[in-house]
Amino acid sequence: MEFKRLSNNLYDDINNTTNKRRRANRKEILEKKKAIGEVIKVALAEKDPLSSFPAFRCYRRENLSVYFESGRGDELSFHLKNYIQNLLKVNMEGPYGFEWPVEEKVKRREMVACEARYIFVYEALNANACKSSSRLERSFTNCRADRRPLVGFVHYRFVIEEELPVLYVYELQLESRVQGKGLGKFLMQLIELIAQKNQMGAVLLTVQKANLGAMNFYVNNLRYLVSTISPSRVDPSIGIQKSYEILCKTFDHEANAILAEENVGSKLSNI
Predict the structure, then answer these.
(1) What is the pLDDT of residues 216-234, one digit of tens each?
(2) Whole-model pTM?
(3) Strands (E) located in 94-181
(4) Measuring CA to CA, which residue among 168, 158, 211, 178 is closest to residue 44?
(5) Which end of the chain has the least Cβ crowding within 10 Å, N or C?
């Protein structure tokens, strides 16, 4: 009888200890989720993410002079909506192929979401207006006054992926006449700065496999990796059937362990 009572007490002690650990783990998980949610909330609340990077307000190279403005999906003008739709069709109808009609409808919904954030690229009329100087704010003001039509945009969002705060690039679209001049790389550097400033663990983006130029740009030029959440790494047999890859660049150990786990298969060796 005494042995049975001791056994029961021991069993109760083990149960109590286990329950305490579960409660502690649950509390830790909830606190982490709350902290991540707050990080996303603060990032979304910033009115002009570009204001922290005045040196990146303008870009000038050879015969190209542009400047950037922030925007959000639920504040797009009729003109901006049309521009985005038209440029997407010109640049992406080919890579998507027969999937484009469906994807176009999805992209139209995505572009006006309240979570959507934009960097709009305007060409400056005066090539010298955006020249680098110690008075960057005045230079930026001159660019705004002398701007020509839009020549491209970046659509990005602050989201939670695999329980991590990340910046997800939905679109980076440039008109053909401003491509190949370093502008895309400059914009991605700016995106990475915005991500790190807002405590995002990584930058993620989706690329169509058929878009070989874009794949080469991200993987070989910018050193992005195929993420662990990309279909080809989740299940190679399923990945073969998918038309896209999810790429990433991580900024801390936790994000790297969860989203990258760099190994032999994490880069596209055939690019």
Answers:
(1) 999 999 999 999 999 999 9
(2) 0.84
(3) 117-124, 147-161, 164-174
(4) 158
(5) N
